[in-house]
Amino acid sequence: MMQIDNLTCLKKYYPQLWDNFQKYDRNENEKVRVEETKTGGTTIAVLANSGWNYIHSKYNPVQEAQRFIQTLEDIGDRHVLFYGVGFGYHIDEFIQLHPTAMFSIYEPNAAIFSKLVESRSLEDWGPSKKLVHLMLEVRAEDVKSQLSQFTHLQDKEVYVVVHPSYERIFAEQTKAFIDTFRDVVYEARNRLLTGQVFAKRMAINGLFNMPHIMKTPNILDGHGGHFKDKPAIIVGAGPSLNDEFENLRYIKENGLAYIFSVGSAINQLINAGITPDATFAYDGSALNSKVFEKVIDSKIDNVPLVFGSTMGFETVNNYHGKMANFLVRDDYIMDMFIKRNDDNAFHYIDRFGSIATLTLQVLSHIQFSPIILVGINLAFRGNEIYAKGINYTETELTDWRKEQAIVVKDVEGKDTYTSKLFLSMKDEMEQLIERVSHPDIINSTKEGAHIEGTVFLPLETVIRERLSTTGIVQQDWLDLIKDTFSYDLEHFKMTVKTMTKESTELDVVFKRFEELFDEMEHYISSQNSRQLDLCFNKFDKLFDRLQRNKYYLRIIQSMNYIEFNLILKMFDEVRSSSDIVMKARRVIDQFKNYLFATKNDSIAIKRLLEDMYEKVIEEGSAT
Questions:
Q1: Which residues contact 7 (CB under 8 A, 6 or more apart)?
Q2: Measuring CA to CA, how many Å separate 103 from each of 126, 194, 317, 469?
Q3: Do residues 586 and 540 make contact, with C-beta atoms less than 8 angstroms apart?
Q4: What DSSP state is assigned to residue 495?
Q5: Which end of the chain has fewer beta carbons closer than 10 Å to its terminal beta carbon, N or C?
Q6: Dihedrals φ, ψ of 429, to 5°?
Q7: pLDDT digit string (tens) for 149-175?
Q8: 196 with 563: CB under 8 angstroms?
C-alpha cells in the first residue's frame, strides 16, 4: 500500500501524475516483484520476454548506484532528467554529490512506480524544490505530451540520464523515449527562439506597418468577388520550379491564370523573365528584407506586394510597387489600435509556418478556383532543397541534413526524403485543406511530397485540360480592390493617448523598482532578514502596480512574454523557501535583468508610437 506521505505529495505537487497513476492496469503488478539483496536492501525484479530481470544489483544496489553516478559527465548548470527510477538508489547518490541541483524523473513503468511509492518516501528528494517534474508513462501517447510540458519554458539545457537496466530491459521503449525527446527538444528550441524573436518583432513591425495598413486596401474585405472561380497558381522556390519556367511563361503570356509567388520564388521568376501578378509575404523576421533585397535594390515596381500585418517592416517601408494587406490573427498591435467605423469584425488569416499555406488560405477565402501548387516540394529532390539562384541560404543537401532526413511519399507514391521543418509545413497545409474543404486544389510540383487533399497533375496537363480560357487575368487587378469599411480614427487617437500616458506612469514604476533593489542589496549584504521581509511587501505592491499598467501589460509584457513566464516560474520556485536572503538574491538577479530589458523596450516603443501617430494623422491615411 502507498505510504500516506507519498499520497499527499503526489496530490499536492504532481496532480497530473496522480491522475495518470489511477489509470494504469493493476494486472501489470504481477510482472514486478520486490526481492531482498545480499546486503539487506531491496531490488526489483521485472518479468520481460527474456524472463525475470533485475533493475538493481542483487548484491549491493547502493554501491552499484555510486559507481553509476560517478560515470556521469560534469553536469554544470544543466537540468538533469532521470529516465527510470526503480527504487531511486542513483537519485540518492546524485543528491549526495549535487545537494543544490534541481532534477526531474520520468518513470516508464507504472508497476515499478507502484513499488517505489510503497517502499520509500518521495519527500527525501525535495518535491517541487529539487524534484521539479515527476512524470509517469501509462500509455505510449503519454511520452510526447509529458515531454512537451516538461520542455515548455525550460530555460536550462537538459541532461538525460538513462538508467542502464531500463535501457537493457525496456530497449524499444527507451529508444522511443529518446527519439521523442529529441523531437520535442527540437520543437521547443525552435518555439523558444522564434517566440523570443517574434514577440519583440511583432510590436515593432506592427507600429511601423500601421500607416501602410491604414492606407492600402485589405484584400480579405475588398476583393469584391472579382476572383471567384478564377484559376490561381502559388509558386514556391522548391527545386521543381527549375523545370516549370516555360510553362509559367506560357501561362503568363496568355493570361491563363493568376501567378502568385511566395517567399524567394519572386527572384527566380524575375530572373526567368516572368513577372508574377503579386508576391505574398508575412514573415516578421529581418530575413524578409534579404528575400526582397534584389527587388527593392532594382526598384522593381510592377509586382504588387500582398503583405500580412506582422511582416518585417523593412520590406514594407522600402517596397516600390503597389501593396495590399491582410490582417493576421492574434496580432495584438493591430487588435489594439485599429477598429472599423461600422464596429464589424475584421477578417483574419491564421498563422502558419509556411507562407505557401498562408497564401492558400487567402486565395481560398477570396474564392480562387482551381488553386495550383508549383514548386511547393516540401521535400528534397536528389541533393536539392530549393530552386537554384537563392544566395542567402543553403540550396543543396548537406551530410547533416541527409542523416536527419525522414521518408515520405511523393506525388507519384514513391519514397522521397524530407526534413522535420518541411514535414511540419506539409502537415499544416493538409490540416488547412481539410478545414477549408476547397474542392479543387491541384499539386503540380513534380517529385514533391504528396499533400493530402490535393490531386497531382503535371503543369503541362493542367494547361491542356484546365486552363483553356485566355485573358482571364486583369493586369490592374489591385485597383479593383476597395475596402468595404473605414477605420475609426477617434479610437486610434484615444488608444495612442492612453498608451502614452501609461508609458509615463511606467517610468515611475521602473524608478521605484530600482530604488527598492538598492535597498534590498543593502539588507542582503548585512543579512537582515527582517528588513528583507518588509522589502518583499513593497515588492508585491510594486509588482501589482506594474501589472495594472496598460502600456506595460498590452505591449511591453507581450514583447517579453517568454521571459515574463520564466520570472513567474522563478517566483514559484522561491515562494516556499525559508531562506529569505537567498530568495532576495535570486529575485534581484533575475527580475532586475528582466526590468532592464523591458525598460529599454519601453523607451524604443514610446518613440515608435510617436512616429506612427504622426504618419497616420499627417498623411491622412485613416479615412
A1: none
A2: 10, 26, 48, 67
A3: no
A4: H
A5: N
A6: -65, -40
A7: 887 656 677 888 999 999 999 988 998
A8: yes
Residue 88: closest CA among 110, 102, 107: 107
Q: What are phi and psi of 423, to 5 degrees?
A: -65, -40
Which regions of 199-269 does DSSP assign to beta strands (E)?
232-235, 258-262
State the pLDDT at residue 623.
46
CA distances from 621 to 66, 293, 578 (A): 72, 27, 58
* Rounded to 5°, angle at Cα 37 from 33 and 38: 155
The pTM for the full model equals 0.72
C-alpha cell recorded at residue 103: 532534477
Note whether 401 and 395 are within 8 A (CB). Answer: no
Q: Can you tell me whether residue 319 is helix, strand or coil? A: coil
Measured CA distances, 512 to 521, 528, 549 (Å): 14, 21, 14
For residues 436 and 391, the answer to whether their CB atoms sit within 8 Å is: no
The one-letter code for the residue type at 367 is: Q
The band of 622, judged by pLDDT with boundaries at 50, 70 and 90, is very low
442: β partners:
372, 455
In single-letter form, the type of residue at position 411 comes to: V
The tens digit of pLDDT for each residue in 208-260 reads: 999 999 999 999 998 889 999 999 999 999 999 999 999 999 999 999 999 99
What are the phi and psi torsion angles at 442 (to 5°)?
Answer: -110, 130
User: Of 276, 281, 291, 283, which is closest to residue 232 (Cα–Cα)?
Assistant: 276
Assigned C-alpha cell, 417: 526524403
> How many whole angstroms separate alpha carbon 594 and alpha carbon 546?
13
| Residues in contact with 487: Cβ distance below 8 Å, sequence separation at least 6, in sequence order | 214, 338, 339, 340, 341, 622, 623
Cα gap 209→621, rounded to integer Å: 12
Helix (H, G, I), strand (E, B) or coil at 545: helix
Closest CA to 581 of 543, 513, 529, 516: 529
- Tell whether omega for the bond before 370 is within 30 degrees of 0, i.e. cis: yes
Strands 441-443 vs 455-456: parallel, antiparallel or unpaired: parallel
In this structure, how many other beta carbons lie within 10 angstroms of the beta carbon of residue 451?
Answer: 21
